[in-house]
């Protein structure tokens, strides 16, 4: 009963993604990340000393899961991406586009957050980049409307 949908429906929204990586001993690790989709590539934030960045550098095989869930309307859209990621030096313009997705116009950004958390000028900043080998989608929005499915929007 799950129904595919266009991935951009999810990729264009400022949702939380879950980045799946493998630790050195092979055990799975996940981390919530902000993302930006551009030119067929998922861009996620990191830093030189970030655990996810280190794990991707050691083993580039990753998965990313993004869900859009609303219990009131019954919407449940699931997007999965798989592939090999790379770690790149921070691209400040790309970072600003990503931040704008989540924080709105630059003028409204919280100075404390920018100085202490985002640190947009930090030379240790990194991007985790995934050009996925596979993308799958499932619209399973039928728990309120079933057997009819709520359209993906």
Q: Quickly count the domains.
A: 1
Run of helices and strands:
HEEEEHEEHHEE
**Considering DSSP H and I runs of 4 or more, what fraction of the residues is helical?**
10-25%
Count the strands?
A: 8
Q: How far do the termini sit from each other?
A: 18 Å
Second rung of CATH, namely the architecture? Roll
Uncertain regions spanning at least 5 consecutive residues: none
Percent of residues in beta strands: 35-45%
Structural class: alpha+beta
Q: What's the story with the biggest beta sheet?
A: 8 strands, antiparallel
Mean pLDDT comes to 91
DSSP helical segment count: 4
How large is the radius of gyration?
Answer: 17 Å
Q: What is the top-level CATH class?
A: Mainly Beta
Structure, described:
The protein is of the alpha+beta class and 153 residues long. It has one domain (8-139): Roll (Pnp Oxidase, Chain A), CATH 2.30.110.10. 21% of the residues lie in helices and 39% in strands. Strands 1, 2, 3, 4, 5, 6, 7 and 8 form an 8-stranded antiparallel sheet that branches. The longest helix has 12 residues, at 92-103. It starts with 7 loop residues before the first helix and ends in a 14-residue tail after the last strand.
